[in-house]
Structure formats: C-alpha cells, structure tokens
Specification:
Radius of gyration: 47 Å
Structural class: mainly alpha
Helix content: 40-55%
Strand content: 5-15%
Distance between the termini: 33 Å
Number of helices: 14
Keywords: Membrane, Transmembrane, Transmembrane helix
C-alpha cells in the first residue's frame, strides 16, 4: 500500500570510528606541544619539522570523515526505498547493504579527490610550503652571484647554485640517486631525529653523510606535510618506547597515552593513514534492519500465490464415487458371464469323467453375425431375466438410453479436457543460459527463475575502458622531459621567456591529466563496486536496459 518508504523508518545505523579520532593526539594540547620546535634550527628532514602539521591534518581528516559520514547517514535515512512489491527479509537486507556501500564510497571519494587535487596543483605551481620541506629560497643574503655560476662548495658536495628558488634534493641512505621535490614531486624518507646543531646545505640532504640520532617507526618524511601524513602510519603512537624517544626530543614535557593496541580494530598498527582516510576512519557501521517495521510501513492489502495440492478431500471423494459407480456397472455387466464361465468349467470337469466325444460344428460367419446382432438388439442391463415381455422390452430401451447417454458424457468429458488449460509446475535444476533463453521464448509470461545470488557487483557484469586525449600519454608530460630543462635564474628579469616556466608548464599538463584520471578512476571504481540487486533473473532486453540506464547515470 506504500511503495516509497524512507530507510530511516526501519533501519538504525551506528558508526564506529578509529580510536585515533577520539585520542589525545588530535587535541590542541598535543598539537601545541609538538609545534614548539623551531623549524629555523632543524632540517626539513627532521620529523619534528612537519609533525605538528601532520597531526593537524589527521585531526582535520577525522573531523571531515565524521561530518561526511553523519551527513551521508542522514541522507540515507531520508532517501526512500521504492518497490511495488513486498520484499523478503533477505532481499531487503541486501538492498540496505548496497545503498549503504554506495553512500560510503561516495563520501570517501568526496573527501579524497579535493586532497589529491591540492597535492597536484601545489606541485605543478611549485608552491613553497611554510616549513620549506619542498623548496629552498636562495637570496642575495647568501652572498651568491645573481648569474649562474658552475659550482658551489657546501662542505661535502659541489652544486650549481645561484639566487632563486630551488627544489630540495634528497639522497637516501645507501643510494646515490638524487630525488628532487621540484621534478619528482615526492621524495619519501624515514622519520629521523637530528639532535645536533645543523649546518647549511642549500636544500641538498645526503643521508649517507647526514647521520640521524633516532628513527621513529612508521613515520615517513616527504616534500609536503600532506604527503607525509598519507605515507605514514600510526605505528610509533602505539609504542610507548617510540613515543618516549619523540617526547624527549622536546624541551618541555607532556603526559600523553599511547593508542590502545589491544582494542579491537580492522586496521593494524602499520596501516597507512591514507587507507584510514580512504575508509573514512570507519571501523564498522552497525546496521539494524527491522523487518517488522518495514512490513508495517509496506502493509500489503492483498497477497496472491499459486500452490499444488495433490490430495484434496473433495477431489478424493469425487474420484472415489466415480470409480465406485464404474466398478458397479462393470460388475453388473461381467458378473453373469463370470458365473457362466464358472459353471462351464465345472461342467467340463464333470464331463471328462465319461469321455464323451462331441461332433465339431463347422464355423459359420453368417450365423455368428446374426447371433451377435441378436445379442446387441436384446442387450438388457436391467430386466434381462424377467419373464414379463413388457418389462424386458422396457429394460432393453433403458439399456440403449443408458449407453447413448454414457457415450455422450464421454464425448463431453473428452472435449472439455482437450479445451481446458491445465497448470503444470515444472522445475529445472541449474539451467544453463541457453536453456533459460529457450524457456524465456516459450514461457515469457509465466517463467520465474530466482537468483542464487541476489546482490552482484557491477564489476562482475561490466568492463569499462576510458580513452584519453593523446597529450596524457605523450612524452611531454613525462618526468624525463620536464627534468631536462636546466634550472633558470629567477632573479634575471632580462630573460623572462617560456624556458623560465617550461618545467612547471609541463608539470601542470601532467597534473591535469592525473587529476582527470584520478577522478574518472575513482568514479569507475565506485560504480563497479556498487551492487546490482535483483531477486529474479532478468530477460536479456530488460537486463541491458537497466545496465545502460545505470551507465548513462554514471556518465552524467
């Protein structure tokens, strides 16, 4: 009676978030404590430089995840479940789970995509972080010439340097490869502590020469604080010894509890924070679907069903009476002959004692025909042995009438049986697709095939391929291309031409291509992981119609 029912009328949902979102580590007290480190006197590769920014971002992501989840669940509670028929409890649960999963995927993409775009735009436009973790600004105060000079000695390496902005360069331990924040975009390093007086490196950090005092497990340093946040895990903050090492590196002291390792969680301590963000920091969504409330809202006013009942007492009684009448009639006909047969057999047995020989009478067809004709004419079921000729005559007429009516009744029954439609319920176990196609052609109006799996991900049904503009696969957006441009002296105002921003230009093209791919891939993954819910198998035309409708909605 009600085909549109809000999910909130029969579903109760309680989200449970990761413990970090309610821990002391996202408190303002903790953020202020780790912010006290002066970045002027520590290197960008020191974990303390970006640690405060990292925890500010974690707090922001926690708050955003909680808000988005709350909004998504409110939207879910207000969204209607539309169906013209009463759903089974299993099918209702499947539809609820599918709707919740879709909202969860949408909320996750809404949180992740802006963050990814900020990363790409920051790198493409070569924006300098306030913590100088990606670029170093070299000015005249360093006493350098404004024009390009071949080399500059920084104590352990000669580098080309002049006044301008340069991407920080990092060399990992046991490696000679130089990673540049300007060209590579990301240069992950272990989260080290350097507890001694620093010296000027002009943005070149070789970990083969710069020795760390301590390494904090799970923390990864990178060009941007946001990259550091995504690449790191909370492993150190589950370990009291690791946390104590970090706390001792600050001048002040703070009493703070580690994360509870024994608390039940679907995430392990080494899980990347990026995965936590992708999952909206959700440990679990408790879903309580009340089928009774759903039924009271749907409230069907009529139910229709088909059943097969082999033994119905009225039918049994009718058949019994019919058989009884038939048996009576048959016995009425054959009883005299049976008696004659018995008497004949008895007579033969007696005659054998006297060995009498009878002459054989020759077979005469005409006499046989006349004899049969006479039997038919005088056939009497009612007064055969009566001596009253009138009564015998009436019996013959009654017998003829009985036979005529019996033949008419048989004809009527045959015609009725031939013209009436009989319902047969045939069950085919595990039909193939070809068998279903043949059955659908013959019995399209009455064929029903319940699905063994009522909830099927779209990725099992659809393959989506995307073709991008050729610029997104060309060499012009490859790192080796824009890294081939020599550094340009930004203080030389006489040579402002394309070469001065060529690397940034091609990085921007790469960024737009990457953003387009990320957005489209996220939407494709979200679409393919949603489920196609249906209790009955659909016909080929109806299936493609619904799939095409879903694809058109996805494209729009």
């Amino acid at each position: 009676t009600k085909i549109s029912i809000p999910y909130g009328d029969f579903v109760k949902i309680i989200p449970l978030f990761h413990q970090v979102c309610s821990s002391d580590f996202i408190s303002q007290q903790w953020i202020n404590f780790i912010f006290q480190a002066n970045p002027t006197f520590i290197w960008p590769i020191d974990v303390r430089t970006s640690l405060s920014a990292m925890w500010q971002l974690i707090r922001t992501f926690c708050q955003s995840s909680i808000n988005m989840t709350t909004d998504a669940l409110n939207q879910f509670n207000n969204s209607p479940l539309i169906n013209t028929m009463l759903l089974t409890e299993e099918l209702l649960e499947a539809k609820v789970q599918a709707a919740l999963y879709l909202l969860r995927q949408t909320a996750s993409a809404t949180l992740i995509q802006p963050m990814t775009i900020v990363h790409k735009v920051t790198q493409a436009n070569q924006l300098v972080t306030g913590l100088l973790t990606n670029y170093v600004a070299v000015t005249k105060s360093f006493g350098l010439a404004q024009r390009f000079i071949p080399y500059h000695d920084i104590g352990y390496m000669n580098i080309s340097l002049y006044t301008g902005t340069f991407g920080n360069k990092y060399i990992s331990k046991n490696s000679s490869l130089v990673c540049s924040c300007q060209n590579n975009g990301s240069c992950p390093l272990p989260g080290n502590l350097y507890l001694y007086k620093i010296f000027e490196t002009f943005g070149m950090y070789d970990l083969n020469r710069i020795k760390a005092n301590e390494t904090l497990s799970g923390i990864i340093i990178d060009c941007l604080p946001s990259q550091m946040t995504l690449s790191s895990s909370l492993e150190c903050f589950y370990n009291q010894s690791c946390l104590n090492i970090l706390l001792l590196s600050y001048n002040d002291s703070l009493n703070i509890s580690i994360l509870n390792q024994s608390l039940s969680s679907r995430f392990i301590s080494t899980t990347k924070i990026q995965l936590l963000i992708n999952e909206l920091f959700l440990e679990e969504i408790f879903n309580q679907t009340n089928y009774t409330k759903y039924y009271s809202q749907c409230l069907p006013n009529v139910c229709q069903y088909i059943y097969i009942h082999r033994f119905y007492w009225i039918n049994v009684l009718t058949i019994f009476i019919g058989l009884l009448g038939g048996i009576t009639t048959v016995l009425h006909i054959i009883t005299p002959y049976i008696i004659r047969l018995i008497l004949c057999i008895k007579k033969r047995c007696v005659s054998k004692k006297y060995e009498q020989v009878r002459e054989k009478t020759p077979f005469r067809p005409k006499e046989l025909f006349l004899k049969v004709k006479g039997k038919i004419i005088t056939f009497n079921l009612y007064s055969k042995y009566s001596r009253d000729p009138i009564r015998v005559y009436h019996g013959v007429l009654a017998t003829r009438l009985y036979i005529i009516l019996l033949l008419i009744s048989i004809c009527i029954i045959i015609l009725f049986s031939y013209s009436s439609n009989q319902v047969f319920n045939e069950i085919i176990i595990n039909p193939s697709e070809q068998e279903y196609g043949k059955l659908e052609e013959k019995y399209s109006l009455t064929l029903t095939c319940p699905c063994t799996q009522i909830s099927i991900p779209y990725e099992d049904l659809i393959t989506i391929e995307v073709k991008y503009h050729q610029i997104c696969t060309s060499d012009f957006i490859q790192p080796w291309w824009y890294q081939s441009f020599l550094p340009y002296n930004t203080s030389d105002n006489n040579k402002i031409d394309f070469l001065s921003f060529a690397p940034s230009y091609f990085q921007t093209l790469e960024t737009f291509c990457d953003i387009a791919k990320i957005i489209i891939n996220n939407e494709i993954n979200r679409f393919l992981t949603t489920t196609f819910v249906h209790a009955q198998i659909l016909t080929n035309d109806l299936f493609y119609s619904q799939i095409n409708s879903s694809i058109n909605t996805f494209i729009q």
